[in-house]
Backbone:
């Protein structure tokens, strides 16, 4: 098996504060193979965006990586200085953020923003960079790229702007793209276009994508594997089809059941009672135990690690020796 | 059905003036510009029912909500609430999308919920107000002691419960819900949707529900109106709409929802995007994106027609197809005779 593009091992992110240290990510492990889309889901505050930021070295101080390792293309990157990370961001890791309007500078044409990024990372003349910028705009499906390159961000619609942001992420020819809620600000019919584009880029260019979203529908259509996070921990990870058809962790199952189905109508939606614990008040044992229907004494006592089940892994005593 | 509807909206239009400032207009010789956010919209909601408005951003669904609750005045058309049993007009309240922006962060929850009671003088003494607030908190699944807290101490789902309690304070019979769950996570969304369904049954509420999420809409509503660029393009019973979407735009919407049960991995990317409402296409507003469009669609605006099963639709091509099928059946019948 070839080496993964990205490997995260037992990552811990902490935010020291006046009232004690908050552990935002606790023992997160995942890997991404070449040309693969890994969907990361969870509720707000579960740590899915935090994982993406930690990999890119973009944690807001005082947040820092307190433990674990991040390996990118066979090189350990979690201990690099900010200056060294600057060389990696854009060149080896591309980023796509939720809001396409705030990720572009309104005062520069999209062409000059693309050319700047290209020339920063690749050794190209101005003319070559412009040709590549036009080519990138064509790749992401913007009609009339030769004319559009001189337009400013406000002249593009939301969907087209997100395509420009994707072109920017591709500019340094990165092997890995971290896309944080790339379709959340878009309408459904435009969202479908962007999902199709991401899939096509993965297939054509062999880029790996870490797709962070709260929308399980988007993951179902775009991702190869899915990682489910809860309260800063990984609870289940596996091939998308298996996890969505037969979720093994009670939280994943609850999440799936609480989505109103399009195909049939039910009188009452299954709901997970309560809410995710605050990160400074995570219960002992399994973080999900106060809301879990299958909870047993072992769940309150010992924290389950990610253990193999079927085609993937989960962190639940239920499938690993019982909850008693 | 003989009961008058809880709400009937006829030919509702709202035009916004979006002209550049006067000086710019003079210097740059720009004309005044107006935006028809809602254009000739007609619908009614039966008592105890739930009508949903769906559509993409900018289609005018939130403007309809604000017109219905009187936050905007209509440019044309009428909005009429039906009478309750005792003859008093129905009272309406609104639940807003963002539970972070719709609650005053400096007020205690108790005061937020009590504000409509105090403002409208619905209770005489402060003790009665307190009792009603405690009752409301219990109704929406919070505890009376939560009343002493501030909004920031609650999660998004709990805040939306507070918004619902505030909306219910005046005992309205009609609730306008503008994307009440789009700011929430799915597991919390299920809690809020279940709560809203339970309240509808217990209190006999009528809902006008606004959402862009078709799966939520299907779960909540009896009838759905699909909007595109300020107009209703199709309106039908929920089951009919999902089983047999007629308008090409409704079909596009239903096709493009990412589905967990049946993911379309090798989808055809649907082309096109929503045109600017400042300069909507002539004729049928959907014709530049429509696979069925012909010359008539780009010239003539389709009228809303009523169909046999109670659906309403604005599309030339579907209308023509139905008429053709009807005349074919008539000829076949005549031939048989």
Residues:
């Amino acid at each position: 098996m070839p080496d993964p593009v990205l490997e995260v091992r037992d990552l811990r992110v902490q935010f020291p504060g006046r009232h004690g240290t908050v552990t935002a990510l606790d023992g997160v492990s995942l890997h991404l193979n070449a040309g693969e889309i890994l969907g990361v889901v969870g509720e707000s505050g579960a740590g899915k965006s935090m994982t993406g930021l930690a990999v890119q070295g973009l944690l807001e101080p005082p947040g820092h990586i307190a433990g674990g390792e991040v390996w990118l293309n066979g090189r350990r990157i979690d201990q690099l200085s900010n200056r060294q990370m600057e060389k990696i961001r854009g060149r080896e890791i591309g980023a796509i953020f939720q809001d396409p309007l705030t990720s572009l500078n309104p005062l520069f044409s999209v062409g000059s923003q693309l050319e700047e990024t290209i020339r920063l990372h690749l050794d190209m003349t101005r003319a070559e960079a412009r040709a590549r910028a036009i080519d990138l705009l064509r790749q992401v499906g913007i009609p009339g790229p030769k004319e559009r390159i001189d337009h400013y961000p406000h002249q593009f619609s939301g969907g087209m702007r997100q395509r420009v942001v994707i072109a920017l992420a591709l500019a340094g020819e990165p092997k890995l793209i971290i896309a944080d809620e790339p379709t959340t600000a878009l309408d459904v019919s435009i969202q479908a276009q962007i999902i199709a584009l991401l899939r096509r880029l993965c297939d054509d260019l062999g880029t790996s994508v870490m797709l962070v979203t709260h929308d399980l529908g988007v993951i179902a259509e775009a991702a190869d594997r899915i990682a489910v996070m809860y309260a800063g921990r990984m609870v289940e990870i596996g091939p998308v089809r298996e996890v969505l058809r037969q979720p093994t962790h009670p939280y994943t199952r609850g999440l799936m059941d609480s989505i109103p189905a399009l195909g049939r109508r039910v009188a009452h939606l299954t709901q997970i009672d309560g809410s995710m614990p605050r990160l400074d008040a995570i219960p002992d044992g399994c973080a999900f135990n106060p809301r879990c229907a299958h909870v047993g004494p072992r769940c309150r006592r010992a924290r389950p690690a990610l253990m193999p089940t079927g085609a993937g892994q989960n962190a639940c005593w239920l499938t690993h020796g019982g909850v008693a | 059905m003989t009961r008058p509807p809880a709400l009937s909206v006829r030919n509702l239009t709202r035009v916004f003036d979006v002209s550049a400032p006067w000086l710019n207009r003079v210097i740059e010789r720009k004309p005044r510009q107006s935006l028809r956010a809602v254009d000739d919209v007609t619908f009614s909601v039966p008592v105890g029912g739930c009508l949903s408005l769906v559509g993409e951003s900018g289609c005018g669904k939130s403007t309809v909500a604000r017109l219905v609750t009187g936050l905007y005045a209509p440019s044309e058309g009428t909005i009429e609430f039906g009478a309750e049993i005792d003859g008093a007009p129905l009272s309406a309240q609104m639940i807003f999308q963002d539970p972070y922006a719709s609650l005053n962060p400096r007020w205690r929850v108790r005061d937020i919920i009590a504000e409509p009671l105090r403002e409208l003088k619905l209770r005489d003494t402060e003790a009665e107000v307190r009792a009603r607030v405690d009752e409301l908190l219990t109704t929406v699944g919070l505890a009376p002691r939560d009343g002493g807290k501030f909004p920031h101490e609650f999660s998004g789902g709990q805040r939306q419960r507070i918004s619902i309690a505030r909306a219910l304070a005046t005992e309205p019979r009609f609730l306008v819900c503008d994307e009440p769950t789009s700011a929430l996570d799915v597991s919390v969304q299920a809690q809020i949707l279940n709560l809203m369904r339970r309240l509808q049954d217990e209190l006999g509420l009528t809902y006008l529900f606004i959402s862009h999420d078709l799966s939520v809409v299907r779960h909540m509503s009896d009838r759905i109106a699909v909007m595109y660029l300020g107009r209703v393009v199709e309106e039908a019973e929920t089951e009919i709409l999902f089983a047999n979407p007629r308008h090409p735009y409704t079909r596009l919407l239903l096709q493009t929802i990412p589905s967990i049960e049946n993911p379309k991995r090798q989808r055809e990317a649907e082309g096109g995007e929503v045109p600017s409402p400042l300069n909507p296409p002539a004729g049928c507003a959907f014709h530049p994106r429509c696979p069925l469009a012909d010359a008539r669609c780009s010239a003539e605006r389709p009228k809303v027609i009523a169909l046999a099963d109670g659906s309403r639709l604005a599309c030339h091509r579907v209308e023509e197809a139905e008429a053709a099928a009807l005349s074919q059946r008539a000829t076949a019948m005549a031939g048989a005779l």
